[in-house]
Amino acid sequence: KNLAMKPFQSSFLSCEKDAEIILRKLFVESRPYSDDLKRLLVINTKDCLDDKTNPVYLKKIEEMNLPKLIQQQYVTFSPEIQLEEHSEVKSFINITYDDFLPNSTNPQFRDYTLTIEIMSLLEYWDLGNYRQRPTKIAGFIDGILDNSKLTGIGTFQFIGGSEVAYPNWGGYMLMYRAIH
After folding, report:
1. Which of 78, 113, 132, 139 has a CB 3.0–4.6 Å from the CB of 99, allowing a cystine?
2. Sign of CA dihedral 136, 150, 154, 99
3. Are 137 and 69 spatial neighbours (Cβ–Cβ below 8 Å)?
4. Cα 98 to Cα 94: distance, rounded to the nearest angstrom
């Protein structure tokens, strides 16, 4: 008896491809905005956006590629974050998937809500001139991703956001609907 399974398709598997597309849009393909986003996550100083000629900042941003952002936990994909005690990470984004539903016109595809949680240690929020690190990060993310294309034929649409607070940490949660 042949126990081999027939080939299958599942749009849940498109989450991997969507994650790659999202991260490439945020950190590779959107220069100079992607460099500013890296600065906000990686450089823990008030002048991270203002001092564009600092050789230490320039070197750090140039060396911080996508695999390093993930390996060093500036970008995570887990519902639970566990940062090491003496980690340099003072800000990060966490990406999760939720609320999968069949697409209304193509039921073999699944639409879902992608949540991007932006977190910063409270002592690093203030960037001066009424600017706050988490809202700047949210602005760059939203400006790059809203109404963009992912896998499939649909778009990536902002559906809401809210403030998030934990002891010593705070930020914002942005929610997008991925329409396939």
Report:
1. 113
2. negative
3. no
4. 13
Tell me: the pLDDT tens digits for 5-47?
A: 666 666 677 788 888 989 999 999 999 999 999 999 999 999 9
- The whole-model pTM stands at 0.88
Please provide residue 178's backbone torsions phi and psi, each rounded to the nearest 5 degrees: -95, 110
* Helix locations, the chain, DSSP H: 14-27, 33-42, 55-63, 66-71, 133-145
Strand partners, 60: none
CA-CA-CA-CA torsion sign (104, 105, 108, 112): negative
Helix (H) or strand (E) holding 9: none
Q: Tokens 């450089």 — which residue?
A: 43
Token match 């003496």: residue?
Answer: 86
Q: Considering the chain, what is the average pLDDT of its residues?
A: 88
